[in-house]
Design brief:
The chain is of the alpha+beta class. The protein has three helices and seven strands, in the order βααββββββα. The longest helix is centred in the C-terminal third of the chain and has 23 residues. The chain is globular, with a radius of gyration of 14 Å. The N and C termini lie far apart (33 Å).
């Protein structure tokens, strides 16, 4: 079960949304806490692709590496390889009414249980802003 689950509908075809999300040059454009990002394996992005990034969360800078451990055209799962705390992100894309429903799920021990309540509110709030930025960039 995900600690955070959000959805947004974007007035673009799933292929366009997928291409935008997986283009490393776009990552810092729509993710507010992501300060650096690079794909560390050759394109195209798919099963086994790895990346590294730097995020600023709760006033702290954290570096991570991650790998796509599940992949198909309708969704994928990134799992941290090196990160404290560990995390996983799931993306799902579904064609709906001329657009795409994007489902985003985030799981981490830092967000779980009663102790993660405040963290879920803060991190989930940033994730919601990020999805709205993603929609604005793709629809703008």
């Amino acid at each position: 079960m995900a600690d955070i689950e959000l959805q947004v509908t974007i007035a673009r075809a799933p292929d366009e949304v997928r291409q935008f999300l997986l283009d490393p040059d776009n990552a810092t454009r729509w993710q507010g806490s992501l300060k650096e990002y690079e794909l560390t394996t050759p394109s195209p992005v798919g099963q086994g692709a790895q990346s590294r990034g730097v995020v600023s969360v709760f006033g702290q800078t954290m570096e991570w590496t991650a790998e796509i451990v599940e992949w198909d055209e309708a969704g994928w799962k990134w799992q941290s390889l090196v990160s404290n705390p560990p995390w996983e992100l799931r993306w799902g894309l579904e064609a709906v009414g001329g657009g795409t429903r994007v489902t985003f799920q985030k799981s981490s021990p830092a967000l779980s249980g009663p102790g993660g309540l405040v963290a879920r509110k803060i991190v989930g709030g940033q994730d919601e802003k990020d999805l709205q930025t993603l929609r604005a960039l793709l629809e703008g």
